[in-house]
Amino acid sequence: MDDRAVRDRRRALRRGHVSEYVAALYLMLKGYRIVAFRYRTKLGEVDIIARKRNLAVFVEVKARSDEISAVDAVSQTAQRRIKAASDIWLSRQADYAVLSQRYDIIAVLPGRLPRHFADAF
Length: 121
What we know:
Elements (H helix, E strand, L loop, with lengths): L2 H27 L3 E8 L4 E8 L2 E9 L3 H6 L3 H16 L8 E9 L6 E3 L4
Parallel strand pairs: 3-4
Antiparallel strand pairs: 1-2, 2-3, 4-5
């Protein structure tokens, strides 16, 4: 990899991490409690896991220039990986039997508030 590719990769990672923090703050302002951040398993990863009462919300965060490209960026393969990771997380919760679950997407857009797509997949 040349220096420019390395710089671009680092910039993209930094943008992604900042977007995840923005999305987490946005969720907290909406009354959610963040219980896990960048939850990783061998089967997949979830950017943010939040709870609101008996609802576990598994959130994929996408930083894009528009809402449509953010939602479209979450492929079927990504959805399967997120669901696999969420199954593992749920199985490790003492109260998992009473938890409802939902899969959301938060689009972090330049110069605008994040857009929350509840029950996106």
